[in-house]
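Per reviewer request, we include the raw input and output of the structure prediction for the construct analysed in the revised manuscript.
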Amino acid sequence: MSFTHFILLFKRQWFENRKAWLVGSAAIAAILAFLFLLAWQWQTSFNGDTTRGIFLILLFCGGGVFMSAILNDLGNKQKGTWFLVLPASAAVKLGMALVYGIVVYLAAYFVLFYSVKEAVVTVVAPAGSSWGNFDLFKNGFYQFLFTFVGFQSIILLGSVYFNKSRFLKTLLIIIIGLFVSFNGNSLLLKLITGESHIDSNIPLDSFQFTYQGENMYVYLPDSAGLATSILLWVIVPVCLWLITWYRLKEKEL
C-alpha cells in the first residue's frame, strides 16, 4: 500500500464530499438534540438507560449511511470507472474507506454526541441532576466498538458488491441473517438440550430457559467466550475486508 497514494485519495474524498458530510453532521446533531429532548420530556415513561439507546441508534444508522456513501462513485457507471482507474491500488482504496468509515466517523460522532448531550443537559436539566450521565466503560459497554467495526465492514462489502440500493440491500441481508441466526440457534439448542422452553438466546454466547417457573441462564465458559470474541471481533472483520479487497480488484479488471 502506497502511503502517498493513500494521503492523496484521503484528501480527494474530503474535498469532494466535505459539504455533504458537514450537512450530514448537522442533521445528526439535530436528531440527537431532538431525541435527548424527547427522552427528557418523557423520562418517567422510558425504562432503562435511554442515553445509551440514543447513542447506539445514531451510531449505527448514521455510520451505515456514511460508510455506504464513501465509495458512492461505484454506483455511477462513469464515475465508477474513473474511481476504479485512479492510480491507487485496491488496498489503498479499501484502507481509505475503512479509515473514514470507522476511525473518522467514530471520532466525529463522539464529538457530536457529547457536545449535543452537554448542551441539552445544560439547558433542560436542573443543577446536580444525574440525568444524561453516560459512562462508555460501564458494564463493558465499550464492546459495542467491536460490533460497530463488524457492522461497518459488512456495509462496506455491500457497497462494493451491489450496484444499486446498496445500503438498503445490505441492511436487508443483515436483518435476514440475524433472524436466521437467532431462530436457527434456538432450534439447534432445543435439539441438543431437549429443552423446549428456551425463551431467548445469543448465538455463540448464552441462552435462557424456564425450569419450574424459574429463569435459568447458561453461558459459554470463559475460554470458549474468548475464542468466540476473537472470531467475531477479529477474524470475521478481517475476512470481510479481504473479500471487499478482492471484489474491488475484480471491478478494476
